[in-house]
Hints:
Blueprint: E1 4-5, H1 8-28, E2 34-40, H2 44-59, E3 63-69, H3 75-86, E4 93-96, H4 106-112, H5 124-131, H6 140-151, E5 160-164, H7 171-180, E6 184-188, H8 195-199, E7 204-207, E8 225-228, E9 232-233, E10 239-240, H9 245-249, E11 254-255, H10 262-283
Parallel strand pairs: 1-11, 2-3, 2-4, 5-6, 5-7, 7-8, 8-11
Antiparallel strand pairs: 9-10
Helix pairs in contact: 1-10, 2-10, 6-7, 6-10
Amino acid sequence: xxxxxxxxxxxxxxxxxxxxxxxxxxxxxxxxxxxxxxxxxxxxxxxxxxxxxxxxxxxxxxxxxxxxxxxxxxxxxxxxxxxxxxxxxxxxxxxxxxxxxxxxxxxxxxxxxxxxxxxxxxxxxxxxxxxxxxxxxxxxxxxxxxxxxxxxxxxxxxxxxxxxxxxxxxxxxxxxxxxxxxxxxxxxxxxxxxxxxxxxxxxxxxxxxxxxxxxxxxxxxxxxxxxxxxxxxxxxxxxxxxxxxxxxxxxxxxxxxxxxxxxxxxxxxxxxxxxxxxxxxxxx
Length: 284
């Protein structure tokens, strides 16, 4: 048996088409959606992510501002820029690319972003709203995973789900969204004893640890949905995920590839969150 592939590129293109329509409708009423992206320092990976985010905005009718600063920028200067963007009516979403240089407290910066412009969904009040089942913004990667499950009409209600990884960015919010959708959820991490004991029972396995091949074919129930959020390099330097892909694809019912799976969805959901913020502001 070979798993069906959940194609993140195709789903992403479809959702971006909807974003462009919503952006055009808002712009026609004089409310063009706006996203500000701040990059501090010169991390190569961050520059690629930021470029893709800005490109996604430009291609889908969202006004975007990219502010690049030297790694020596002070915390006070960054907080002042965030405050100015909070007060800018043309900007509906503010994103500060992480990681930040070590002398800047990332938590302090995230908390400084106005909750209604926190399109990453990392602000403590947004995390609290998600926890209580009434999210304002869903963090982009977990939101993308839920859209992938929706795209295959997977019956999440009543399903058993295992999330491997407990970060604030993916694992914890992913567990909350699955819980909200009616799944029975177990949260594991890279140190969980006998990880396979948990994953073998799961109808849905979402893996986000940054550890290559942490989930192998023998750890997956036949027919399960396997969603790989990991981004690693194999011994040949090729991009791969956290799941041992080829053998697992022989067991799973559905699987996401790396690249071309969850990755494209993350930026697409950022655009969706920006549109949602703009629609709320317009109806203010």
